[in-house]
């Protein structure tokens, strides 16, 4: 067994599933990543313009789902959940590619491209690697 603990929370105007875009590029509002103070040193060197992968715990996801209609479209055939980006899955880990718009204080990033709900727990953040490693 292992433990995962949140390092922060998403602040977003997205409150309800039916109002949320299916993917980050589908007209998402700006959001904030607010980290617990103990993780401030881990945010060093993140700059506006950086692209990050934000891993979240999709706490509203249904963990009993193994097949879904992609993007919730009932006209599409059922697919195995592991071949989709559905938030409903046995371990509801979300992965979101975002762009940092601004650093707002020592523990807060304003980002674009995040389709996660308000108060979604943040599990980890990693840089997008474009051929050069950090």
Automatic annotation (TrEMBL):
Ranges for domain TsaA-like:
4-134
Q: Which branch of life, at top level?
A: Bacteria
Cite the Gene3D superfamilies for this sequence: YaeB-like
Specify whether Transmembrane is a keyword of the entry.
Answer: no
List the InterPro entries hit by this protein, alphabetically: TrmO-like_N, UPF0066_cons_site, YaeB-like, YaeB-like_sf, YaeB_N_sf
Xref: NCBIfam families = tRNA_TsaA
Return the protein name: tRNA (N6-threonylcarbamoyladenosine(37)-N6)-methyltransferase TrmO
Organism this protein belongs to: Rhodanobacter umsongensis
- Per the record, the gene is tsaA
């Amino acid at each position: 067994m292992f433990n995962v603990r949140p390092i922060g929370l998403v602040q977003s105007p997205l409150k309800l599933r039916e109002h949320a875009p299916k993917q980050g590029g589908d007209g998402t509002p700006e959001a904030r990543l607010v980290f617990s103070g103990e993780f401030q040193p881990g945010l060093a060197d993140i700059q506006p313009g950086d692209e990050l992968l934000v891993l979240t715990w999709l706490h509203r996801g249904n963990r009993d789902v193994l097949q879904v209609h992609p993007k919730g479209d009932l006209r599409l055939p059922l697919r195995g959940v592991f071949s989709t980006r559905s938030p409903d899955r046995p371990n509801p880990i979300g992965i979101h590619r975002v762009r940092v718009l601004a650093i707002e204080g020592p523990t807060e990033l304003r980002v674009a491209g995040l389709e996660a709900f308000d108060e979604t727990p943040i599990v980890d953040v990693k840089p997008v690697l474009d051929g050069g490693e950090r």
